[in-house]
Design a protein that fits this description.
It is built from two helices and ten strands; from the N terminus they run βββββαβββαββ. It is mainly β and 204 residues long. The protein has one domain. Strands 1, 2, 3, 4, 5, 6, 7, 8, 9 and 10 form a ten-stranded mixed beta sheet that branches. About 4% of the residues have low confidence.
């Protein structure tokens, strides 16, 4: 059977950080500024139990938001700020909502400059588009730690840890009290024997 990723095979381009392949771009949004904790957050930042750790984070020790993770509104930091998910006084916050997918890690990559540090900006993909993500949840985050698998057509949400998940119960927004999480996208190609990447059509 032909590889739907166009012959890219099972190559894994994660290395020590998250990566995004942009197939069809909507908007590279650089409006607003990164929160201070966008440069210092642990990965994962909220649910840190080893049993819940996504296998896509294996080997990643970098601090700060990662390419392929979700950019959230962060009214706790001020008007116009965005960053990763955070608990405030150990509580989920209703004002933190998904905006799009971070294109780059906040701290940059080895042997590259660090535009996030220099500018305080963290561009994210929004306004539709199709992207292949190296980071996504492979485990249940809330109420257990069962394996999490994907299929074409699944709606995906922003998890409590700021990664894509198809489990609505793991949505940050749901755990902050919303009836349902924002649909960030729809699975186009699920990870399988041909590829470790999750391809989604963005809906935000």
């Amino acid at each position: 059977m032909a590889n739907p990723l166009g012959g890219q095979g099972s190559g894994d381009f994660r290395e020590t950080s998250g990566r995004v392949q942009i197939w069809h771009v909507g908007h590279r949004n650089s409006v607003g500024a990164l929160t201070a904790d966008s440069f210092t957050q642990s990965n994962p930042p909220v649910v840190t139990t080893a049993a819940n750790l996504s296998s896509t984070l294996t080997g990643i020790t970098k601090k700060g938001v990662l390419g392929s993770s979700v950019a959230f509104t962060r009214p706790d930091a001020g008007n116009g700020y965005h960053g990763g998910p955070v608990l405030i006084a150990a509580a989920y916050q209703a004002g933190q909502k998904p905006l799009g997918i971070f294109i780059n890690d906040s701290l940059g990559n080895p042997f590259e400059n660090t535009p996030g540090v220099a500018s305080g900006k963290g561009p994210y993909l929004s306004a539709m588009g199709t992207v292949a993500l190296s980071l996504y949840e492979t485990k249940q985050q809330i109420g257990g730690s069962a394996a999490n698998t994907y299929a074409p057509g699944d709606f995906v949400y922003a998890s409590v840890n700021g990664l894509i998940t198809n489990r609505g119960a793991d949505s940050y927004e749901v755990n902050a009290g919303a009836a349902a999480g924002t649909v960030v996208g729809v699975v186009k190609i699920a990870p399988d024997a041909n590829t470790s990447l999750l391809v989604i059509d963005l809906r935000i």
